[in-house]
Amino acid sequence: MAKSGVNLGRIVLGQGVPKIAVPITGRNEKDILSQAKAAVSAGPDLIEWRIDFFDEVTNKVKLHDVAKLLRDDLNDIPLLTTFRTRSEGGQVELSDETYFEICQNIIDFKQTDAIDVELFHDESSIKQIVDDARLSGIVTIMSNHEFTKTPDKDVIINRLSTMGEIGADIAKMAVMPQSSTDVLTLLEATNEANKKLTLPIITMSMGDLGKISRISGELLGSCVTFATAGEASAPGQIPISRLKNDLADLHLNE
Ligand SMILES: O=C1C[C@@](O)(C(=O)O)C[C@@H](O)[C@@H]1O
């Protein structure tokens, strides 16, 4: 039975072919806007702004100005805004207080369709962000990254499940494989979690070894795949022009 999807602007996550997200990783306004132009012309389903790359992310006024300029350039392509902390593979380590302040600013600006919130922070603050996002009509994608290893299948499924219990609209888990067996662990966890959980999930096994996980989402149940239209934001991402063909070739017709 098909799950009910999550509306994100003009797209629905959790049904049919996985949606393609292209990240923007510029460090300043000029690079952010020129990457946005390249991303838009590559024709993704959604765009991710990785604000941890932005040099002025802690300057509220500047963050708001660039968020608005970016949004105006996206031609209605839905926007996901993500601050990835250093311990999860991002650019900057922050105190929880600053991390949540930035998340709150992003919600208050109302210039995004979705926000990424990392699972491993103070739980009551996460819940507050999820509630505030919902009140503002912003979708929460809760995430966890394991940048050095692939946890056991049950651990992956439990974390995705916990994200749903906390109130996320979508649960996301990225892991690093050390072997082909690790890749299979992530794929199996995806297949099981997708059947067990009511919320849509996003998973990936990073690096070259894990590339298969970036094209197998329709079969196993991962609803978004991240692709490049220039800079990659994580290892193993496939250029969008090729990924579109891969997803079309693997599309299930019945
Ligand atoms: O969570 C993810 C997934 C990702 O880490 C990947 O492996 O494609 C890329 C990040 O930009 C994004 O926030």
UniProtKB/TrEMBL annotation:
Its EC number is 4.2.1.10. The active site is at H145 (proton donor/acceptor), K172 (schiff-base intermediate with substrate). The keyword S-adenosyl-L-methionine does not apply. Keywords: Amino-acid biosynthesis, Aromatic amino acid biosynthesis, Lyase, Schiff base. InterPro entries: Aldolase_TIM, DHquinase_I, Type-I_3-dehydroquinase. The keyword Lyase applies. 3-dehydroquinate binds at E48, W49, R50, R84, R214, S233, Q237. It catalyses: 3-dehydroquinate = 3-dehydroshikimate + H2O. Pathway: Metabolic intermediate biosynthesis; chorismate biosynthesis; chorismate from D-erythrose 4-phosphate and phosphoenolpyruvate: step 3/7. Involved in the third step of the chorismate pathway, which leads to the biosynthesis of aromatic amino acids. Catalyzes the cis-dehydration of 3-dehydroquinate (DHQ) and introduces the first double bond of the aromatic ring to yield 3-dehydroshikimate. This is 3-dehydroquinate dehydratase. It comes from Companilactobacillus mishanensis. The lineage of its organism: Bacteria, Bacillati, Bacillota, Bacilli, Lactobacillales.
